[in-house]
Each structure stands twice: as structure tokens, then as C-alpha cells.
Amino acid sequence: MNIQKLIRPNILKLKPYASARDEYKEFTAALTFLDANENPFETGLNRYPDPQQVLLKTRLAEIKGCNYNQLILGNGSDEILDLIFRTFCEPEKENVILLPPTYGMYEVLANLNNVEIIKVPLTTDFQPDISSILEVINSQSKILFLCSPNNPTANSIKKESIEVLIENFKGIVVIDEAYIDFSEFESWVSRLDEFPNLIVIQTLSKAYGLAGVRLGLAIASEEIITVLNSIKPPYNINQLTQETALKRLANLDLVKNQINVIKQERFRVISEIKSIKIIHKIYPSDANFILVKVDDANKRYQQLINQEIVVRNRNKEPLCENCLRLTIGTPEENTKLLTVLKSLI
Ligand SMILES: *Cc1c(COP(=O)(O)O)cnc(C)c1O
């Protein structure tokens, strides 16, 4: 598979911006830095951050079991998704394949980049409709977005289906694993060597508890990552984010404990919610949220708001009629949700 052929010609030709800190990489306090027009007086943040995020990427590579050169960091995974569009999709000419209901940003970014969208809805059990997907893809199809576990449906896509899709799609396959740490399925990072057209997206916004710092990552072949790195804004990960993330990643036991609590709570919420009459269906969850079908989503959504509980109304999403998406909170928050749900008439 020739990845270079999938990259837009203008991106291949592009000469990346070389920042001051890129040109002179050794960054020790003993040196006198008069190269980047920074304010020399110490504020703790007066210097530009490391544009290659060496310490943070080294630690993440260790945790994710990949090579340092297979990693790119973004200002949230949303920034990386945008870079992927700009790398591979020629506006007004090429298209991407989306499988609704799924994460809304893929569509927003496609529209922002003026790239055509071909939608192939999931089946009623929220799995990809493989034969329809293989039917609609054409020579202009550049990216297939798979979200597993999927948002808002909460389930994972079957391994065999993903294999068939990667093997048969001649463009880039993006697997968004924002919720992988809550899942029983293994990450596709371990399969990257087999699939040169695969990009795995993860984030520190969910399981790692750092939505506020905006840190997303993509893991792929060194070939793909080199191109993405060459077009990213030079200082896209700020100093505060790099420091905060490194601190959080130094204490993985804490993260793992929180994930375990959330998974136990997911089990508890699902088992208690079953007996509530207004809940008509609970979809299987491999994430830190559950999708439920209720009798009247708009009405129940508003009643919950009146009781000061905010959930996500997914009623308008395809296949999600009268569905609410409930994030698993702290044990106290979940108890409150269950109490209020039981009281609704
Ligand atoms: C929450 C979420 C993300 C995270 O986006 P960030 O920009 O990293 O916060 C990515 N993909 C999906 C499917 C999500 O639900």
C-alpha cells in the first residue's frame, strides 16, 4: 500500500515552518537564549514550550506500547482529526465515509474542510453495515472513520468487522478509541504493524481525567506521523498542558483505580436502571456512559434538568429515537440520578 499516494500533493510539497526551538534543540537552563524574542524575565512560562513534546511523548510511547516516532499530540483529538482531513482530503473532490450515529466532530470537520461526506448508517445493533460500506466507497474515498467504543451508542465494533474494513478499504482507516480504557476490547495500537493505512486516535479527556488541558494523540506508522507532525502548528501543546499531563501520567495507579470505579458504577447503574418503567431499553456499554431508550426523551430530559441533572438528549440522532446518553458520574452522582429517574412520572 502506497501511503504517499494518498497524501494531498500540496502537503507532500510543503516545507514545514521551522520554529526557533526547532532549530536549536538542546534546551538547558545554562544556555543564553536570545533566539525566540521571548521576554527573558522568569515567570515560569516565559519560554516557548517544546514543539516536539519529547518528555511527554516518550512517556506516552511507554504507556501505549508504541514507538516515539509513531506518536503525534494535538490540542485535543479534534485538532489531530482536522490535521488528518487536511493531509489526505482534497476539498470539493474527495470524500470520507461516516457511520452514523457517531461522534459529531467528523462531520463538522469534513464540512469545515469542504470534503464530501458519504454516510452509511450502522445496523440496528450498532455495527457497521459492511456490504453497504464496500458498495459506496469509490476512488475518491480517502478516509473511513470508525469509532470504537462508539459515541453515542457506547458499544464496540466487532474485531472481525474492523479487520474486513481495513483490509478492503484503499484509503486511511481512522479508529477513534476515545473510550478504549473502559472497554473489554484490546486497542488496535497492537495491530498497527499489520495495517499501514490505520490511524488510532486516543485522548486524555476521558479515562485520564484531563478534558480541561486538551490533549489528544494519534498513533500510526512513522510514515503517516511524520507528515502529520510536519503540518501541525509548531507550539500546539502548551507548557501547562505538557506539565499537567506528565504529572498525571506519573500516577497511573490513580487513573486505573478511577477507571475501575467508573466500570463498577456502570454495572450498578445498568442493573438498577433495568427496573425503572420509563426506561424501555439499555444498550450494551463498553464506555463511561450508557445509551438508554426512554418513553419520551424530550420530556424526561427536561424533567431531569428541573431536578438539576444534565444528560445528553440524542433523540434526533439516527437510530436513537427517544434515547438519552447518561455519563457515569461519581457514586453519589449516580445514586442521585437513579433516585430522580425512579421518581419520574
Ligand atoms: C470525547 C471524544 C473525543 C475527545 O476529543 P478531545 O478533543 O480529545 O477532547 C474524541 N472522540 C470521541 C468519539 C469522543 O467522544
UniProtKB/TrEMBL annotation:
GO BP annotation list? L-histidine biosynthetic process
In terms of SUPFAM superfamilies, this protein maps to: PLP-dependent transferases
Q: Which GO terms describe its molecular function?
A: histidinol-phosphate transaminase activity; pyridoxal phosphate binding
Output the Pfam families linked to this UniProt entry.
Answer: Aminotran_1_2
Q: Which cofactor does it need?
A: pyridoxal 5'-phosphate
Q: Which InterPro entries match?
A: Aminotrans_II_pyridoxalP_BS, Aminotransferase_I/II_large, HisP_aminotrans, PyrdxlP-dep_Trfase, PyrdxlP-dep_Trfase_major, PyrdxlP-dep_Trfase_small
Question: Which EC numbers characterise this protein's activity in its record?
Answer: 2.6.1.9
**Record PANTHER family:** HISTIDINOL-PHOSPHATE AMINOTRANSFERASE (PTHR42885:SF2), HISTIDINOL-PHOSPHATE AMINOTRANSFERASE-RELATED (PTHR42885)
Q: Which family does it belong to?
A: Belongs to the class-II pyridoxal-phosphate-dependent aminotransferase family. Histidinol-phosphate aminotransferase subfamily.
HAMAP family linked? HisC_aminotrans_2 (MF_01023)
The protein's name? Histidinol-phosphate aminotransferase
